[in-house]
Amino acid sequence: MQKAALSFEIKWLFAFVNLYLSMKFKFSLLLLTFALFARSQSSKYELVISHAKVSDVKSGNISNNQTLLIKAGKIVDIVSTSKEITGKRTSMVTAS
Questions:
Q1: Does residue 79 contact residue 66 with C-beta atoms inside 8 Å?
Q2: Quick one: pLDDT band at residue 10, thresholds 50, 70, 90?
Q3: Entry pTM
């Protein structure tokens, strides 16, 4: 009878260790994901041109005080200059 009880205790211990390592791995993976996401956000744009006038060629409208977000030599987004865009590797230029 003692062998059966010992076997049950060992199985329970292995299950607990497996669960603990699984949770630890998942937590580590979650932290790594957040760190990589934060890093990708900080260097999202190579160049930011703020306070620019943007002309819509289809409608002919001119929007003042816009910010152009540039990555890989292409304008990827145009937002209002009131939004704060920062990053470690982002060059900021003010249009005049």
A1: yes
A2: confident
A3: 0.49
